[in-house]
Each structure stands twice: as structure tokens, then as C-alpha cells.
């Protein structure tokens, strides 16, 4: 295999990985924020105490967190087929990626929101703020640096998950590494994917760190 | 402006119940600065948080500006809260917003239009002396400046009432002084009613018109500062004006054996009840007398205009008594100047009857 062939394949792989990570990150962002905020609000002493809902959400998140991703990947195949219509390709991989990442990110959101001092929330309540205002302008806004840092961690985890998805026909860099590097002993390809992944993750972390620094005024 | 009656709040955990506020009645008139003094754990913080329903009281009513907050529904309570400003010990500012942004937040909550917000924020920052730091973030400010932001924010919605939760406890004495001056100034200029809780006597001394001492969830004593000063045996008066070492124990003059006139073991309180109270009824001062071997010990408290008069010098001049001052202090309080002294007059109480009478008539009495 020549280097130009390697680069050609690598380009496709990188694009596929980037696509899977991007879409699942966006979905995770929405789902994780929702679940994370609900976990905080419905907790005892929260702004909207609802113990049953809190318990159910907590359970779901814990179940999601306790399954190794590779198992989750296989376990949700019927669900994936129902939604996407196929279980092969990057689009199909997005389903398990999102399902796996939402509980992960939800816990990060939860702990970031809990970092907002109670007296700041009390101050907003005492000013007569609505719950929506408190969630949007106090909880989420105040924990934004933590949320961005958490999202960075999630994106990097997703890059890792996406490589596993490649194993079951998801495409992307993981797919390349398995098919060429592992099954065909193409060492050049293996090295290239490793380097590509390292660079990718480094870039994500750098952008994340930069954003956190910009946002933090503590 | 604030009426609290029969307020009770118990915290229950699995193992035990802690009664934080145990039947408190409190009335704060418009424009008053009311201080609740107490150690940590006395329940004063819970009491304050019950005033704007941050804590729901178990029993009792809380009426602010004519509305019983315990009976309001969520939406109405929100509106009512907008009329009650609050400042916090640790400032509770939004770290992600600038000084201006923090003040603007209170206005966003009330739905003030953007343009109006801007002018109002500038006005408020000017009021608290932070006009130049509008674009700074809280992390860049000193403690005193942060509390000024807190005050500006609390006043944004033009509340009639300000609740202060240990607002100066995290500040050094000098900064405390400047914040207290600001509060007093706002109280005077805006007619703001202030209810504050503190564990610092200085705060009560400097700005309060009325005060209460809280212990174990109850008010031990309460009233206007002037009344408390006159009340014999008042802890607050004693703490405000310590007479010296012997007074802190609460039972002075145990060695008092007079020339047959009131050989009291507990000179001050006995005599205080006899003389002090009758005096207190008449005016804004109090005197208590007790005998000692060859000397009469007198505690006098003067406040108001009388505090500026040379009472002790007059005593010496007019009656020719060699007054000795055993201890005492003069303080400028929020409302008045007041002084409290323990004097020793040579001779028995009978010898000094005229002088005592004079004291009661002057300043110390009407």
C-alpha cells in the first residue's frame, strides 16, 4: 500500500469519524443537558422536587453508564434498525454513540450544575426570578465553563466510542484500523490512524481548553 | 413594614428535629433599621430566610408591606419578592457576569426593558460608588466592592425592604464600616426599611434603631435601642457599653457592705430595679445605685441630647462630690449618642441623695 493510498483512505476515515462524532455530540448535548438539568431540578431540595422522576432518571443513567460501550453497541442494534433502517454505516453508528454518551454527559452536567453555589441560586430566588430564569441565567450560565470542559471530555470519549462502532461496520478511523491495520497487517495504515486520532483528540482538547479559558471569570 | 408573629421553623432529619426558630414575634416599622443579634446557630439566619419565604415557616405569619407572604401562591410570591431586596454574607454574585450585568440581572427578572435597564444600572452603580467598575467581573473586585454590587442589585427593583444576611461578616473592620455607612445612608435617603442579622455588636451599634438578641430560636430581648439602654439588666446595653471587667460577669459589687443602707449582694440589679426602673419610666436614661464601704456606686446611662452635656462635671461642681469614674464609655449610635458610666460617689446613698436626685432629674431622667 502506497502512502497516497493510505492518505486517501485516511481522508475518508477522518471525515466519517468527524461526522459521527459531530452529529452524536450535538444530540448528546441536547439530551445530556436535558437529563442533567432534570436530575438537579427534581432532586430533593431542588427547584422542582419530584422524587419519583429523579429516581427513574437516575436509574436509567446508571444503567447506561454501567454497560461497556461495545456491549451497548450490539444491544441496541434492533433499535438502530428501527430508527435508521440499517445497522451498517456511519448514520447507524450515531444511534448507539448518542445513547452511550447521553448518560455520560448527563452526569457531567449534573455535577457542573451542583457547583453553582446555593446562595447564588437563593439570591436569584429571593429576587423573584422564575425557575426558567434560574435554570437559564443562573445554573447553566454560571456553570458554562464546567459544561464546556465536560463536553470536551464527552467529545473525546465519543471519538473512542466511534472507533468501536467501526468494528461493527460503522466506518471511520476505527474501521480502517481494524480492516487494514489488524486484519491485513498494513502497519503504515495502523500508524497513520494512530497519528490521525492523536491529532484529532489534541485539537478537540485545545479548542475546549481555549473556550473554557474565555468563558471563565472566576 | 415587616410583621412576624408566632414564627416557628423546625428542621427534621431522620434522627432528630432541630427547632431553628421557636415562636418569634417581630415588628419592623417603616424606615427602621432592625438588627437581630445572635451567635451562629441561634436561628437568626432561618428567621431572615423566612421573611422572603426562602424557608417556609411551619407556623406563624410573615407580613411584608401589608401582604401575608405565607398565604401567597407561587406567582404572587415572586412578585412580592421583587419588592424585598436581600444581601448576602458571601455576596452571591454571578461570576459569569460583569458588575453591570449582575445589577441588570435583577432588572431582567422584573422584566424591565433593555434601554431602561442600562440607565437604571448606571444610576445604581453610581449610588453605591462603583460607577467606574461597571465592566469588571466579581472575581476582580475586593470584598467591599462585591458587597456594594450586592447592594446595588438588591435595590434595583426599588424595594421598600432590605434583608441583610450577615452582610459585613466576611469583611474587614474598615470595609464593614464603609458598608454600614452606605446602608445607613440608603436607609435615610430612600426611606429603606432594613432587617439585618449579625453576630457583630458593631453593626447594631452603628446603624440599628431597634434590635433583638436571639438565642436558641427565641428573642431574649428586643426593642428600640433607646429602650434597651434604659432597661436594667439588658444584655444588649451591657454589651454595647461594657463598664469594665467587673461588669461582664453580670453580678458586680459583691463586696458591697454599706453603712446600713442596702447591703446588697447583687448591688446593681437590686438597686437597678428600685431606682433604675422608676427613672427609666421618666426619660431616656437610667441610674442604679448601690453602696460600698463609704462609697455609693452609681450606674448611669444617658442618651440623646443629654449625652452631650457635662453631667459628671456638673455633679462634681454642684454637689462638691469627688466623683470617681470606675468605668464606662460613650458611643455614637445610629440614632443617638449615648454613654454609660459607673461612678463612685464618696459617702452613703443617703449622703448622696441630693446628687442622685439630681442625676435622675437631669439627663438621666426628665
Summarize the structure in words:
- The complex is a heterodimer of chains A (218) and B (366).
- By secondary structure, chain A is an all-alpha fold.
- Chain A has one domain (3-215): MetI-like (MetI-like fold, Orthogonal Bundle).
- Chain A is 83% helix and 0% strand.
- Chain A contains ten helices and no strands.
- The mean pLDDT of chain A is 93.
- The model of chain B is unreliable at 245-288 (pLDDT under 50).
- Chain B folds into two domains: 2-229, 3-Layer(aba) Sandwich (Rossmann fold), CATH 3.40.50; 241-361, Alpha-Beta Plaits.
- The longest helix of chain B has 18 residues, at 173-190.
- Chain B has helices spanning 44-51, 74-82, 99-109, 114-127, 143-155, 173-190, 201-207, 225-230, 235-240, 245-248, 267-282, 311-319, 353-361, and strands at residues 2-12, 17-28, 33-37, 59-64, 67-68, 84-88, 161-165, 193-198, 210-215, 218-224, 285-292, 295-303, 324-332, 337-346.
- In chain B, helix 3 runs parallel beside helix 5 (143-155) and helix 4 packs across helix 5.
- The A-B interface holds A 117, 119-120, 122-130, 133, 137-138, 141-142, 144, 215, 217-218 and B 49, 52, 54, 78-82, 84, 86, 88-90, 92-97, 105-106, 108-110, 137-139, 153, 157, 163.
